[in-house]
Amino acid sequence: MAPAIALKTLSLFSHIFAGALRLVQTITCRNKTGEDHSWQKPSPEDRRSPCPMLNALANHGYLPRDGKDVSLARLVSGLQESINLAPDATIFAGLIGLKASTTGSAFTLHLDDLAKHGVIEHDGSLSRHDVHFPPPADNKTFAPEIWATVVPLLNEGETISIETAARARRARIAAAREADPKFDMAKADLRASAIETCLYLRVFGEGTEGRARWEWVRVLFEQERLPFEEGFKRSDKMLTISDMLTLEEKVNAVPGEDSEESE
Ligand code: HEM
User: Fold this and answer.
1) Across residues 60-72, what is the average pLDDT?
2) Which of 112, 131, 189, 232 could form a disulfide with 47 if both were Cys (CB 3.0 to 4.6 A apart)?
3) pLDDT band for position 262 (50/70/90)?
4) Among 81, 259, 231, 225, residue whose Cα is nearest residue 159
5) CATH 3.40.50.300, applies to 122-263
6) How far is Cα 95 from Cα 76, in angstroms, rounded to an integer?
7) Ligand 1 site, residue 194, Cβ cutoff 6 A
8) Start-end ranges of CATH 1.10.489.10 in the chain?
9) What number does the ligand 1 atom closest to the CA of 50 have?
10) Protein residue closest via CA to atom 8 of ligand 1
């Protein structure tokens, strides 16, 4: 199937599934109040992913704290309750993530399954090592030494502009390309990486204008915690796929040495 058709089909499926899920949630009146969403450090047995946001949500109990057997429905409700991400956006990413599942069920995943390289996980991450570099490879755990190279690029004051975020991402990809003899980012990886930048800009910024609060972004990456204490509030407005696509266009439009073009 041509990639554009596959994307449209996946998007349509996500939309239908999200509608059905919303209906089930309404009918069953699932009331989530009373759940404990305090931040708790994961135990060594808990599973965590290469995604700072999913890890933060597990640390807050919006996703199973043990990171095991996470269903698509739980991803949808967890991301909606915590940051108001639209169900179809979660389903879109979640369906891709499920391809890495090792749970024995096609409908659930363990968070660490998401470290499977080439499904969503890719080289050139802002805060993780590449899959093969440096050995022994750990492409899943927050790597302070990688993040330390990115911090000066993002830290331009109280907020991060789209331009700064785009340049930091490109610089990190260029550095990984230079350092890692087995560096490999296919087009889909580059797109995933751009979307990840859009996600943090949208969740911690102002609509599709960027201006993500630096302190909040830092807390997410460094502590895998939602920055409620620092003033972050769940957006009243749903964060949509369309927001991400608008941001993606803006991120890709930032001029400069472009790693995508060199593919
Ligand atoms: C179902 C939803 C989601 C799935 C399945 C998912 C999965 C992933 C995976 C597998 C990665 C690793 C990519 C890499 O190699 O760097 C990743 C990275 C990332 N994700 Fe998520 N994610 C989801 C939602 C979100 C949301 C809502 C945010 C909002 C802030 C987010 C922010 C990020 C960021 C910033 C990175 C880049 C980390 C880095 O470069 O070091 N993700 N995600």
Assistant:
1) 98
2) 112
3) very low
4) 231
5) no
6) 11
7) no
8) 122-263
9) 12
10) 51
